[in-house]
Specification:
The protein is of the alpha+beta class. The chain folds into 2 domains: about 90 residues, Ubiquitin-like (UB roll) (Roll), CATH 3.10.20.810; about 100 residues, Orthogonal Bundle (Helix Hairpins), CATH 1.10.287.1080. Helices cover about 45% and strands about 15% of the residues. The chain has a 4-stranded mixed beta sheet with strand order 2-1-6-5. A hairpin with a 4-residue loop joins strand 3 and strand 4. The longest helix has 22 residues.
Length: about 220
């Protein structure tokens, strides 16, 4: 879920930060919480850090334009804050995010895309479900009417359930076809199930907890 604080708590946190050392600024490193990949580095002043803590979306200070800016304010590729970690001297921060879309202005997934030695490409893991779920929540809260998620949620629960029923039938039919088709239809079904969870205010973590409970219960019975 997105990390957000009250104004009082945000100001309390900011008071602990050493902005003086960097002449009013601190470096902020943005990291993907799904795979720990470093995404970008920018600078924050007191105002931008407070806005980040209040909104749950990263805000920075542009030293060239001399203004506050929110990541994704033009592209829609927001960085949704999951945690903020200060270094030992409180003069630099690490921001863990769920990233919506490419973070780099070059349309790359990371600003650090020019390695001296070529690295193996990162493969998506089950953590991608958490990213998709966060995007669904974001679309449901602030998405415009062009957003598929927003439109579907606005139509209500019966429409969401109808889509789940439709996608379930597609999965059954796909089992008689190719594995590629099955993977595609399974993905559609999981996506719509997550929309249902979001509409009910149920965290994806609750599903993980249930799987874990069942697994432990099964192990316990087998002993």
């Amino acid at each position: 879920m997105i990390l957000q604080f009250s104004k009082e708590k945000a100001e309390e946190i900011v008071e602990k930060v050493n902005f003086e050392k960097g002449n009013g600024f601190i470096p902020a490193i943005v990291q993907d919480s799904s795979n720990n990949r470093v995404l970008m580095q920018a600078y924050m002043n007191r105002e931008s850090l407070i806005q980040t803590l209040l909104t749950g979306k990263t805000h920075f200070w542009s030293r060239t334009r001399k203004k506050l800016w929110m990541k994704g304010e033009e592209s829609g590729h927001f960085s949704l804050v999951q945690n903020i970690i200060f270094d030992c001297d409180n003069d630099a921060i690490l921001i863990k995010v769920q990233q919506i879309g490419p973070i780099c202005h070059t349309n790359q997934e990371t600003c650090f895309h020019n390695p001296t030695v070529k690295e193996e490409e990162l493969k998506p893991t089950a953590a991608i479900l958490e990213r998709i779920y966060e995007i669904i929540l974001e679309r449901s809260r602030t998405g415009d009417e062009r957003s598929y998620v927003k439109k579907l949620m606005n139509k209500g629960e019966s429409e969401i359930l109808s889509k789940i029923s439709e996608e379930s039938e597609e999965v059954v039919l796909a089992t008689k076809e190719s594995s590629e088709r099955l993977v595609s239809e399974e993905s559609d079904l999981i996506f719509h199930l997550m929309i249902l969870l979001a509409s009910k205010g149920i965290k994806l973590q609750e599903i993980f907890n249930e799987f874990d409970r069942r697994h432990k219960e099964k192990i316990s019975k087998s002993r």
